[in-house]
Design brief:
This protein is an alpha/beta fold. It has three domains: 29 residues, no CATH class; 61 residues; 155 residues, Nucleotidyltransferase, domain 5 (2-Layer Sandwich), CATH 3.30.420. It has ten helices and five strands. Strand 1 and strand 2 form a beta hairpin. The longest helix is centred in the first third of the chain and has 20 residues. Involved in the transposition of the insertion sequence. InterPro entries: HTH-like_dom, Integrase_cat-core, RNaseH-like_sf, RNaseH_sf, Transpos_IS3, Transposase_IS3/IS150/IS904.
């Protein structure tokens, strides 16, 4: 052990013990809650851009993150991409992009707090790599209860999957007052808008470069991937679907949620109907 009051110098003691002298002056710095929350938001946004443009590498993702207001460097982005297993893939046609010919509806939820189940849903799509190809997961989360109310796995990235997910979720859970999404072409399509109109659902869309507007569903996607998909192997859509279904069931029925007073989403969701 190094003794600072020893007649031998600290340098000589380190030499004899074969220790690195710089280690004596190192104090571990643990990340505070703010830093952890920032990194979680950053990882969610990296996953968002990887979903929208899977062929973007770290350099181009940094540009998108800077546009979103994240003060990041390439070293940080590369570290987080490696952490969650995100790699650029070969560009494909017809990836989800904003259709500039379509009118963008306003964001209705600024400073908005949901006060009952099915008042506000968020919907989004995430990209999931496969050993041979890829799949896309459309999911819907309830703002009030944090319950994952609907999801659908598909090998196509078009409005059809989104429309199917909404229809099936409405059959099971009822009709929400508002559905929020980003400005992807699936959500600006005439068919999607017509469906919401027929159900008397108000449509809300994230503002441009407003990464936090749909953060609830993006964080759920990140948790699904880091906690369930990346640690486990899956070789077929069937195996992937089983992993997702297991995670959804555990998330809704077992996992306490801090924002819900440590209740689980299903208890909060169904308990509100019973009250």
């Amino acid at each position: 052990m190094i003794q600072r009051d020893n007649e031998l110098s600290i340098r000589r003691q380190c030499e004899l013990l074969r220790l690195n002298r710089s280690g004596l002056y190192y104090n571990a710095i643990l990340p505070d809650a703010t830093a952890v929350e920032f990194e979680e938001s950053l990882m969610a946004r990296i996953d968002h851009w990887h979903t929208r443009c899977p062929y973007l590498g770290s350099r181009k993702i940094i540009i998108k993150l800077l546009e979103d207001g994240f003060p990041v460097c390439r070293k940080t982005v590369r570290r987080l991409m490696l952490k969650v297993g995100i790699y650029a893939v070969y560009p494909k046609s017809n990836l989800s992009k904003r259709n500039f010919k379509e009118a963008i509806v306003p964001y209705l939820l600024r400073d908005y707090t949901a006060s009952y189940p099915n008042q506000v849903w968020s919907i989004d799509i995430t990209y999931i790599p496969m050993p041979h190809g890829h799949m896309y997961l459309t999911a819907i989360i309830d703002w009030y209860s944090r319950r994952l109310v609907g999801h659908y796995l598909s090998d196509t990235l078009d409005a059809t999957s989104v429309i199917y997910t909404v229809k099936e979720t409405v059959k099971k859970c009822g009709i929400p007052a508002i559905i929020n999404s980003d400005q992807g072409s699936q959500f600006t399509s005439d068919d999607y808008k017509a469906l919401l109109h027929s159900l008397n659902i108000r449509q809300s869309m994230d503002g441009r470069s407003r990464w936090a507007d749909n953060i609830m569903i993006e964080r759920w996607f990140r948790s699904l991937k880091t906690e369930q998909l990346y640690p486990n192997e899956y070789h077929s859509p069937r195996e992937l679907r089983q992993l997702i279904n297991t995670y959804v069931d555990d998330y809704n029925n077992i996992r306490p949620h801090q924002a819900l007073g440590y209740k689980v989403p299903n208890d909060f969701y169904f308990g509100s109907f019973a009250a």
